[in-house]
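Task card 7
Instruction: Convert sequence to structure tokens.
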Amino acid sequence: MKQIGILGGSFDPIHIGHLKIAEKSMKAFRLDRVIFVPAGTPPHKKDRKLTDKKDRLAMVQIAVLNNPDFYVSPVEINRPGYSYAVETFEILHKKFGPNTKLFYIMGADSLSEILSWKTPLKLFNFCDFIVATRPGSSFKICRRLMKFPPLELNKDKIHFVETKYNISSTIVRKRLEDNKSVKRLVSKDIIQYIKDHNLYNKSAEVN
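Output:
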């Protein structure tokens, strides 16, 4: 049976942390590949205008270009309306069939919000979860969350992988807006794309 990881997100912009989580998850759970799924219109981010979906998709495609085990799916970018995870996984589950096991790769913050999503428990019909935690606090928070009956019933489908990368797209955007270097946070190709397309702050530093 094939095992495929699905890493979704706004990727606004995609950063080194996303790639490291994908790499670590792939190694820890022996995944055959990881598919990055940029969100089209995420329902939980109505308070902030996202960068154009075409730019976010292009940045993800550039970021994974040199890794033959990483792929990109525009399934949410091409779908009208809000991007609900349960609908995406239902589509992917049908596409790959019963001989493929899907893993939903997410951060600990996403797990903490999952019960507020659209029909979240239905997701367990389509995938297992790989939750990336930071050393210390986030793992403890996840353990407490799993004591809630809805998650406790599915605890065998929730797995953890620890990562030391404490990076967020919010931090990257803020540094770009403040004209600070993001050299160790974002790949050089992505910084160049940001500069070429005047995203966030056109004077973002490459060095």
